[in-house]
Design a protein that fits this description.
- This protein is an alpha+beta fold and 674 residues long.
- The chain is 36% helix and 21% strand.
- It contains 24 helices and 26 strands.
- Helix 12 packs antiparallel against helix 16 and helix 16 crosses helix 17.
- It binds 2-(butylsulfanyl)adenosine.
- The site of 2-(butylsulfanyl)adenosine has 15 residues, from strand 3, strand 8 and strand 13.
């Protein structure tokens, strides 16, 4: 009995401990234990829960995606109205706001303000009782929302329990807070990349994806979307609550909630200046904001001012200039990707959106064009936000004159003119002609890319030349290219030709893992390739693996297993492998993999900024993590390196000021490769 009691105590302690490490990792971006140690703790917890399912508590870290699907959402009456905000579009609008409210209460002329980013996500309301997250709801109509507790639990940055004694504070007995659920842009792009590789429909933008994920009746579907949350308001609560907005943010942060950046402004002009500064900063953020919120810091004054309709008088939203414009859709083109997937794109009358000229925008897929009824010749709304690829929102149907043409998806590949196919269960259309030059070009580009064989200098332009001249018909042909061959092509002189040949020949010493990545099998990226390379002797061995043998390997599901089997079954690919063997490119299984236990960067903290040439920021982050380094979002004294790409922005300045080493991608690689 005593043993049981002790085990129960241990169980509760494990819950607390793991929740704390989740907070360090996801909220503070500053973990204090390794992933390995974390997994060990989680394993212990799971073992106890298996033995004692009746002990499983609501704040157990295993319960984030624990609930089954529901029929519909229950209604939740909010404990106080969940208000909206009045908008201002210029500095003068903001000044008029103060003038208006000063007529109601003169105190506002001598008070200070808080300025926060206006987060572009979905407003949610969270209830905590004795520190435990007990209910979460959508805003709904402001009076009544929907109970989405199970979905909200899947958000890793949402505290399931406000840890007692965290930062010396006791959690209030009851507190209801409000925040915004969102998806960070790099997470959104990585999600879409994974979906594209698996032939699934890509998501249109982070905001709608976040909203859709939270409205899933099955929380396990929500859990697949990398949501995050930031909390900025206390709706109600018991106990001593902050009396100003500055203290509110500080208090929320101390309780362990992720909060937005918030700046105090001494007067309104100061607040306006902060709004304008952020207009420039917006582009470099890794989440979307659509404006700034100016709040009267003193919450008593703010609440005394009352509300107009649903808008509190004590705060105002300054909306940024639109990142959305309208222009003419001149034509619809179709790209053929590496896996043969066809993707439509809009050819636009060039138009400037927040400082960048946009000539093309994605149309996602053929269903999207049909669902939105987008026609050639339409006036269309186009959005470009942050780092998200510009996309067409939809047509302005009121401006149609009848000359618009409905787009018919092509029946044949726009490049090789072979019939296209639809794979059952997928939305995408594919060109299945393995010899399609468009696919060959994309495949070779991938083959030579940094994450695959890293053949420096062999970019898309040269690849196109090699394919169109007929010098290269598959990846193995690269290895038999001669300097003489290259000199026949436009723009090649001695030195350039020699360099490329040398880079190609050098790449023959690359690992099995990189070669498997380079093959471009659907669903097999760097991580899966490393798992395969650690298990199979060489390409031959992998080629002979059965579907069943592959499926039982951790991280490989039935779809990837099938994709691997299919790939090796194609005669064209069998020829390719034989050619690799013939030219002497035949790496063997390695015990030490790039993705397993390489800790060349351990003990170092990195911040990434600007546009990198080869990595997306997400990829760079993963790369650093895989090598044992740490990545944080902001530069501080604890930062060891700033990895800077093009247009680095304010982080660069800060790193310079603090004397932190600024490195590029190449240097990062060198560090990581040890
Ligand atoms: S304060 C009484 N602060 O913007 C205060 N709202 O257009 C009302 N929002 O529905 C909200 N970031 O969902 C506040 N830092 C922030 C915000 C924020 C985003 C959203 C909120 C609201 C909408 C109003």
């Amino acid at each position: 009995m005593l043993e049981e009691q002790q085990l129960f105590k241990r169980y509760k302690q494990l819950c607390r401990e793991i929740n704390y490490h989740n907070y360090r990792y996801h909220v503070l971006d500053d973990p204090v234990i390794s992933d390995y140690e974390y997994d060990e703790l989680l394993l212990k917890l799971r073992q106890i829960e298996e033995q004692h399912p009746d002990w499983i508590s609501a704040d157990s870290p295993t319960q984030r995606a624990g609930a089954g699907p529901s029929e519909k959402f229950e209604k939740v009456v909010h404990p106080a109205p969940i208000l909206s905000l009045a908008n201002a579009f210029s500095a003068d609008d903001i000044r008029s706001w103060l003038e208006r409210i000063s007529k109601i209460d003169e105190r506002v002329l001598h008070t200070n303000f808080v300025v926060e980013p206006k987060l572009d996500g979905l407003s949610v309301v969270l209830h905590y009782r004795d520190g435990l997250f007990v209910q979460g709801a959508t805003r709904g109509n402001g009076e009544v929302g929907e109970d989405i507790t199970a979905n909200l639990r899947t958000i890793k940055t949402l505290p399931l329990r406000i840890p007692a004694k965290l930062n010396g504070l006791k959690p209030p007995p009851y507190i209801v807070v409000r925040g915004e659920a969102m998806i960070r842009i790099p997470d959104f792009e990585a999600l879409n990349k994974r979906r594209e590789e698996s032939g699934l429909r890509t998501y249109v933008n982070p905001r709608n994806t976040a909203a859709g994920a939270l409205r899933q009746l099955d929380p396990s579907l929500t859990a697949q979307i990398p949501l995050m949350i930031m909390i900025y308001q206390i709706i109600t609560g018991e106990g001593d609550l902050p009396k100003t907005q500055v203290e509110t943010i500080r208090f929320l942060r101390a309780l362990g909630f992720p909060t937005p950046e918030s700046k105090q402004a001494d007067d309104l002009e100061d607040a306006i200046a902060i709004c304008l500064q952020w207009t420039g900063k917006r582009e470099s953020l890794d989440y979307e904001i659509d404006g700034m919120v100016i709040k009267i810091n003193d919450l008593t004054i703010a609440s005394d001012l009352g509300i107009v309709g649903k808008d509190p008088r004590g705060a105002i939203a300054y909306k940024f200039p639109a990142q959305e414009v309208t222009t003419n859709l001149l034509d619809i083109g179709v790209n053929v990707g590496r896996t043969g997937v066809l993707t439509p794109y809009a050819v636009l009358d060039p138009i400037e959106i927040s400082g960048v000229t946009v000539k093309q925008a994605t149309l996602h897929n053929f269903d999207y064009i049909r669902e939105k009824d987008i026609r050639i010749g339409d006036r269309v709304r186009v959005k470009r936000a942050g780092d998200v690829i510009p996309y067409v929102i939809g047509p302005v149907t009121a401006l149609r004159n009848g000359d618009e043409k409905i787009f018919e998806p092509p029946k044949t590949c726009p490049v090789c003119h072979q019939p296209v196919e639809h794979i059952q269960g997928e939305v995408a259309w594919y060109c299945v002609n393995a010899a399609c030059p468009a696919q060959l070009i994309r495949n070779l580009e991938h083959f030579a890319s940094q994450s695959a064989l890293n053949i420096v200098g062999l970019g898309i332009k040269i690849v196109e030349q090699l394919v169109s001249s007929g010098l290269v018909n598959d990846a193995a042909d690269l290895f038999t290219l001669t300097k003489k061959d290259l000199l026949k092509l436009d723009g090649f002189a001695d030195k350039k030709a020699e360099n490329i040949i040398a880079a190609i020949q050098n790449s023959k010493s690359q690992s099995l893992e990189r070669l498997i990545t380079a093959l471009g099998i659907r669903g097999v990226g760097e991580v899966i390739a490393s798992v395969l390379a650690a298990r199979f002797e060489d390409l031959d061995d992998l080629a002979h693996a059965s579907h069943d043998q592959l499926e039982i390997i951790e991280g490989i599901g039935p779809n990837i297993a099938q994709a691997i089997v299919d790939w090796f079954a194609q005669p064209r690919n069998q020829v390719l492998i034989e050619k690799f063997r013939k030219v002497g490119f035949w790496p063997k299984k390695e015990l030490k993999s790039r993705h397993i236990a390489l800790s060349t960067l351990s003990g170092n903290s990195f911040v990434i900024t600007g546009t990198l040439a080869h990595f997306t920021r997400q990829e760079a982050k993963e790369y650093i993590l895989k090598h044992g380094g740490k990545v944080t979002n902001s530069v501080s004294k604890k930062t060891n390196y700033l990895v800077a790409g093009e247009n680095p922005g304010s982080k660069f300045q800060k790193a310079k000021e603090l004397g932190i080493s600024v490195i590029g991608e190449e240097e990062l690689r060198k560090l990581a490769e040890g």
